Write the structure tokens for this entry.
Amino acid sequence: MSPSLPPPRNEGTPVQSTIMTVDDSPSMRMLLKAALTDLGYKVLEAEDGVHALERLDGAEPDLLITDINMPRLDGFGLIERVREQDRLRNLPILVLTTESSDEKKQRARSAGATGWIVKPFHPDKLAAAIRRVLH
Amino acid sequence: MSALPRAADGLTRVTIMQGETRVSDDPGVILTTVLGSCISACLFDPVAKVGGLNHFLLAEPGSGETDVRSLQRYGVYAMEVLINAMMAMGATRSNLKARIYGGASLRDGFRDIGATNALFARRFLRDERIALVGEDVGGHGARRVEFRPTLGLARCRIASDRPVEPPRIVRPPAPVVDAGGDVEFF
């Protein structure tokens, strides 16, 4: 009897990638989780920057998507704290926010963000952005 | 948005049009809007004495937009813009209370657009754990809402008993829903 073959791998389907989403709005987290799950990603959720840092202690996501305006620790602070950790220095970070000012984009860039997406997010554009940073 | 001179009562009335959001910590301001099937959320923080009002519509009659998630994305966005503007003015999310108005019945095929708007607003507030302390939604007439943002007080009157006219959808100037999700890499 020949050994069983592994299931066919669907190239380009990021079934193994895990994305952490950080947003203080449960509604936004639900929408994001639905979109990302549809795309085949595993999703970890955090409700603000402090919660995200706690969850990152025991997790190694492939990508972090964070809001900016959050209580306790905002998106800028989160990015800075993540970049201070050697283990997470190269973790891609996409900002997903209602903000669109150049000043805030520049601040995110200086903090170490990988990219900036303006809400309301379009699933196709979000998917393309994720593919670009993960592959 | 147009700010009018202070009226005889000493208050300044600011009219909010569809797609707009306005917040204020000025006790001399009244935010006012006229609603048909659109919905307005009046949020306020009684501790910081900051309040705000938005005026939005999830779907245009005849637009063919039936993707529930797409509609939710816009609704969540409209609410988040209001909440963020309030937080920037000193409000605390956990202190927020809400009143909702509008959502008059407007049929588009099998769908009641006004009811859809009202349902979204209620669900959003429930999911976000924001206390809904007052509402006047549904029915068939247009409403005029006046909201004192620093006090959290609102007055809602039926402006017309006639069935509401189909609204023309207006999205905030930037970002708009079709252009939403614009991506910039650093």
Observations:
- Chain B is about 20% helix and 35% strand.
